[in-house]
Specification:
151 residues, alpha/beta, 3 helices, 23% helix
């Protein structure tokens, strides 16, 4: 029933009326969280100053991803703050530029070390704006990206 079709009920009662939706059948509820598939790559970023990803840093990130053969159709790029639970990742690889707000179980917080949990490989690196300014960090990142993507 739509809200408009319930307007006539106001004329019958003096109190406020609320329409309560019917509970869905158990068969119609999903039994598990939807899985995106372990073929994709999740790229998380955090900015040193907390701002959004600037155009020059977007271009830098695109250059990094293209260097290892990643395209938009198999890569999801999100700010770290949009990942609700780091343990619920359904991606084959996760690259994190910055600090996890909450570290996934059984992973340590070391940067530039490829770690494995379940069927997912994790690589944590410094924030993008810091990497962009330092050649030695670019080299560390590139070495790890070559290893994780066998480039």
């Amino acid at each position: 029933m739509t809200k408009e079709s319930n307007l006539w009920l106001r004329h019958l009662y003096n109190e406020d009326l609320y329409v309560i939706a019917k509970k869905p059948d158990k068969e119609s509820l999903p039994t598990e969280a939807p899985k995106i598939g372990r073929k994709g790559v999740l790229v998380l970023y955090q900015m040193e100053d907390g701002t959004a990803l600037s155009e020059p840093l977007k271009a830098f990130l695109t250059k990094i991803l293209n260097a290892v053969g990643l395209k938009e159709n198999n890569t999801k790029i999100l700010p770290i703050t949009q990942v609700p639970n780091p343990n619920d990742t359904w991606f084959e690889k996760v690259i994190c530029f910055g600090q996890w707000p909450e570290l996934p179980d059984n992973l340590d917080n070391s940067s530039y070390t490829i770690q494995q949990k379940g069927g997912t490989q994790y690589l944590k690196a410094d924030v993008l704006d810091k990497i962009e300014k330092k050649v030695e960090l670019k080299k560390k990142l590139w070495d790890n990206l070559k290893a994780i993507f066998k480039a």
